[in-house]
Amino acid sequence: LESSAVLNLLREHFVSTWALVVDLKAIIANQTSDTIKDSQRAKQALDNYAFPVESMVQQIDGTVISKLNANDLLDTHSKAEEFLNM
Fold first, then answer.
1. Residue 69: inside a domain, yes or no?
2. Is 54:48 a contact under the CB 8 Å cutoff?
3. Using CA atoms, how far apart are residues 18 and 41, in angstroms rounded to an integer?
4. What string of H, E and C letters represents the secondary structure of 12-30?
5. Which domain range does residue 23 map to?
6. Residues contacting residue 47 through CB under 8 Å, at least 6 positions apart
7. Can you tell me the distance from the alpha carbon of 20 to that of 55, in angstroms, rounded to the nearest whole number?
8. Is the pLDDT score of 77 beyond 70?
9. Within the chain, what is the greatest distance between any pair of CA atoms?
């Protein structure tokens, strides 16, 4: 992150946010002609959600590029420990 080019790219093209499941459902339920794109993004996020916490990267149209569930992250850590203890 010391590169000014990378920092400019992040400033111009990246948004970091979070949402609760109840909020995503409300966005979908309250869709109007002005909020169709927001509703589509919320639906894609909800469709890709898994309990308890899902971290995901989405394109502007809502397409999920990558995701990681908190349980998978914990599982990865325990598998790494098992591997190191072999």
1. yes
2. yes
3. 13
4. HHCCCCCCCHHHHHHHHHC
5. 17-84
6. none
7. 12
8. no
9. 58
Q: How many domains does the chain have?
A: 1
The reply to whether 63 falls in a domain is yes
Structural domain includes residue 43: yes
Q: Residue 3 is which amino acid?
A: S
Please count the other Cβ atoms lying within 10 Å of the Cβ belonging to residue 46. 16
Q: Give the end-to-end CA distance of the chain in Å, rounded to a whole number.
A: 36
pLDDT digits (tens, 9 = 90+) for 21-56: 999 999 999 999 898 999 999 999 999 999 999 999
Q: Write a three-state SS string for 1-16.
A: CCCHHHHHHHHHHCCC
* Average pLDDT value for residue range 60-74: 88
In a domain, 12, yes or no: no
Computed over every residue of the chain, the mean pLDDT equals 87
